[in-house]
Design brief:
Number of helices: 8
Strand content: under 5%
Structural class: mainly alpha
Radius of gyration: 17 Å
Largest sheet: none
Helix content: 55-70%
């Protein structure tokens, strides 16, 4: 984060008073989640092509039953590749430093929650209909091959639009009957 500070300053990031209003922060964070989800989906889906999966992404999939710390366990190339999804939104808007820190904190919390292996009563997936959560991402890790589906980061709309969650939806329907 420290190394990126000059880059973000160049792109218009503020770090002084006044702090942005909660409306500005909320709008930017929502925008970041939407942009991050779109970019992450395509990046993650590309990582599931045969060569990239075998040589890069399989490191992250060494754990078929993930836990919180595995969210950050990945090949260095994958960290750089998918890390771009996290910074593209802030790079486009030049946020206040507080907004950037909040965004980074929310991203880490979200990815740890998605990899924790538990569907808690307080999980956002209980309150936000399009939020994937641990159950959604656990399915992705259970299938250790290149076409596992469920490539989204936070929200499930990209998987639904492109049909990459069909196996998950079928399994969930079977469990409910």
């Amino acid at each position: 984060m420290m190394a990126s500070y000059p880059v973000f300053r160049f792109m218009g990031m503020e770090s002084s008073f006044p702090l942005p209003s909660w409306k500005v922060v909320s709008a930017q964070i929502l925008f970041y989640f939407i942009i991050e989800d779109f970019v992450f989906y395509w990046g993650h889906r590309i990582l599931h092509t045969k060569w990239l999966y075998k040589n890069v992404h399989s490191v992250h999939h060494e754990y078929a039953t993930p836990f919180g710390l595995t969210s950050e366990y990945a090949h260095p190339a994958e960290i750089l590749f998918l890390g771009f999804a996290t910074i593209v939104g802030p790079a486009l808007t030049g946020p206040h430093l507080i907004t950037l820190w909040l965004w980074m904190m929310l991203r880490v919390i979200e990815t740890v929650e998605a990899h924790c292996g538990y569907h808690f009563p307080w999980s956002p997936s209980n309150f936000l209909p399009l939020y994937g959560g641990a159950d959604f991402h656990d399915y992705h890790h259970r299938l250790l091959y290149t076409k596992s589906g469920n490539y989204s980061s936070t929200f499930v709309y990209m998987d639904w639009i492109f049909g990459t969650d069909k196996g998950y939806r079928k399994l969930k329907a079977l469990k409910e009957t």
